[in-house]
Amino acid sequence: MATVLSARPNTNSTGTTNSTTSRTLSTQHHTLSSNSDSASAHSHAPYDHVPVQLPSHRHVSNSHINGNGIPSPMSRRRQRPIKSQYPANSTEKHVEYILVASFDIDRGSVMEHQYPGPVGGDEHMLAELMLPDQTHLRSQDWTIFFLHKDAAGEEDDEMKQRRRRRRRRRKKQGEDGQMKAGAEDREDVDGEDGQGEEDEIDGDDDNFDDSSDEETFDGPPLVYVLNLVNTKQDHTVKRGAVVKAMAYFANPVIETLAGLYDAVNAMDLSLMPRLNSYDRFILQSSDAKDLFLEKFEAIIAQRMAGSNATPSNPALTAPSPTMNPSQRARYGLPRDTHELESVVPYAGIPIPVKVPTALLPETVGDFSLVKLITTFSTPHSTSPQPFTPTHPHLTTSGGLTHPIIVLLNALLTQKRIIFLGHNLPSSDVAEAVLGACALASGGVLRGFTRHAFPYTDLTKIDDLLKVPGFIAGVTNPAFAHKTEWWDLLCDLGTGRIRISNRIEAVSPIPEGVRFFQQPGHLPSASSSSTAGSASGTAVTGISALAAAGASLSAGLGGSGLMGTVISGDATGDVAFMAGVLRAIEERHGEGAVRRKFRRWIVKFTRLAAAFEEWVYGASMLVIAPTPPTTHPPPSPFVVEHTSPGPSTSSPKPNPNNAGPSPLSLPPEVLTHGYVFPTPQSKTNELAANATRIEGWRSTRSYYNFVQDTAASYPRRPVKSVDLQHLHDRLAKLRLSSEGSGAVYLAVCQMVRGEREVEELLAVVGGGFWGADGGVQGGALQGAAGGGVVGGQGQGLFYLGFGLFHPKVEVREAVAGLLGRVREHEAGRHFWVGVGRFVQGAWERVERAREARVRDAEEEAEAAAGG
């Protein structure tokens, strides 16, 4: 931590004007500096407009009451209050400090004002950070930089917060009398007690939120500083210009800062619901504009219930999902739930502000991945140049590896990266640095922004070089000639990426690479290796696999199609980048591109776990499922069957099952991890990725991910099976009816409550086989008159296949699962996306089950009467 602080680079130390003033807003939130998803989207029909209609006596009904008259888990949970991300009574502020620095030609960089008080640290360093190079040549420029708060103060605040939590828990224990002894200590570690209930301060089960754990292992939270500088030409002063910030030109007094400070912190975001990690991922995986609208409605209703709302006052009646957009705006309902619209009342003018509802880790600032990718892809596409030298960690597809993949590999393997923008605004290099951090994080990995320096210069080089694996932005071309300072140079002006000829070599050869050079683990030798491969490991066997119809790039983040593969693309990166560029050309939007890279990162972590388990025998990147010893609590949506075989009689529910019974899952559903289409594809793909996986295993982001995996496991709703693995098997393997039936039944048995449904939706929301080109199932959906929910790949498509299974118990269990998804506030959007073909099959299965139940009841009554 201390190293990072001392290595935080300063900005300009040489002034260009007689009076240069910069205003900085300092905040711990992403409120003013985060990019909202501006991808084009289409709204989906609400649940009430689903074309499939079922009879009112159907077992799976809109009523959440089971046979015992007990509300279902979804009904009970919906009665709990929705918590706000920014409560109205919170003491936290959107902006903590406003800083004003100026450059005087005689005195240098000077900190003029700090409101409402000193931020702490070296004031001269802060003043230099706020003044980019060559500001006087531009009308406006901005940067973002990060500050580390005092660790001692943070520890004191954390202890106070923990004491408050303990008091609230003791009070809750006294009221409920259901908490187990020792649960309090466990909550301090993982935020949960033995019953699965969360700490009251963090929200209950319905609003589970693990965002507070994002910085747990990385030290105190960062302070995000947004710095804006405006230039005003004035020939009466030295050097002909005065650079000041915003309204400070007209009224340069402390009252101006106070007014701005109060105005920004007066922004009301209390109607933004808090989302748990699964909800955030689901929201960012979809373009549906009314996704989780129910949470907004609930939090508005709660606010109205606490006010003087009366039925006779139409302005205070509860909002309805059927309202048009103008009516929704009247009640504060967003037109697009991906962002909340608010206002900053400054100088008597309401300034509109849009704040993202869901933000993922390492997402800071208003950057564009589309712009970053286009910058380096265009020169490579028009005039490809091989990388010289090559490096095993970076050029994983040979000398002509796509530049974006080289950049991604460099970020994952913690190389020193410089973004050079000669004669460009400092905002451009800052944007590129922040975009690169998000590119490699994908909302999954951490540790990039903490070592990122969106802007620096030559005067700070000594401090910069003390930071391993830094990501820095510069505008001075002198950096390009100092190859010993960096491992990768990304020139924003030319769109070219260079690998330093002084980059550290990989020596000795890692054990994981040698593993695939041993007999029995060699990649297929039936085809030629990729030309120009620099890794030293064979990336062969692709032609043979293509002939067999297997796609190595299939799965999370891949873009290959079943039966097709790009020759020589063992890693799948060529197909992946082709899909990304196609999405950009077709204007899918920034959100779609970010989702693709998130899937790529998820796939990479699962590949790394499979790599470690095979090579080293175990992996800390994954926790194997824990087989259940008892049945989960009964659900009104699932029919319990007494026989695992084909059922010829009416299936009998077991509503009176008050106690747990042993649950035995077949061994094939207790496996976990990444699913490979064939054993040879596993060898080929892991061998092709071996060098970058080995390079990643010694980095900050790797160890952060290990810690995050361990910390998140206790809060995972489904621990008995790996839902991602089971869904992968349905999507990527040719399973027998017995094998697929076991998978379907395991998923249906484990996914019962709302939390479990959310985890399942997060799994299917990632999509499979790469939605870049579509698959046979996607064509089937389109032909059936349905559609795929925007940004969700295949959605429920592979689960919907279970409605056509030859066994009746499998069909009915899948129908029950889809019924629970259909009832879920987010699942209803996935349900619309399956199309009429699957919806019609679901209706037929439900009607057939109801007919059998009626026949069985009539037979039982007749037998009793006889």
UniProtKB/TrEMBL annotation:
Domain UDENN: 96-628
Biased composition (Polar residues): 308-327
Low complexity: compositionally biased ranges: 10-44, 643-657
Alphabetical list of Pfam families matching this protein: Afi1 (PF07792), SPA (PF08616)
Single GO biological process annotation from the record: actin cortical patch localization
A single Gene Ontology CC term: plasma membrane
Biased composition range(s): Basic residues: 161-172
Biased composition (Basic and acidic residues): 173-184
Biased composition (Acidic residues): 185-217
Positions of region (Disordered): 1-48, 153-219, 308-328, 632-664
Protein name from the UniProt record: UDENN domain-containing protein
Lineage, uppermost ranks: Eukaryota, Fungi, Dikarya, Ascomycota, Pezizomycotina
